[in-house]
User: Which sequence fits this backbone?
């Protein structure tokens, strides 16, 4: 019985230590930096896109005027340090 308790304690410590390695501010920083870089793209109107970061995955949403703008927004998000993945639901709607 004591062996079983020991194993459960070790597993509990492993789970808690894994949670402690997550930086709670990383997603906030990633979101802010992606938004800032999209605003800085003066040749494309990317200022109204939705940007959310969860566990270093960036989710882009909204509409763009061309396929080039969609590709540009996705590429900009990928260049931000710490981004592991970009999920885009951007829709292309020309005027």
Assistant:
């Amino acid at each position: 019985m004591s062996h079983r308790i020991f194993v459960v304690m070790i597993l509990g410590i492993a789970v808690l230590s894994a949670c402690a390695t997550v930086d709670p501010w990383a997603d906030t920083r990633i979101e802010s930096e992606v938004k800032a870089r999209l605003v800085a793209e003066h040749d494309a109107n990317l200022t109204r896109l939705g940007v959310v970061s969860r566990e270093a995955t960036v989710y882009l949403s909204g509409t763009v005027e061309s396929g080039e703008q969609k590709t540009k927004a996705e590429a900009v998000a990928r260049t931000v340090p710490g981004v592991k993945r970009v999920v885009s639901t951007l829709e292309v709607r020309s005027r």
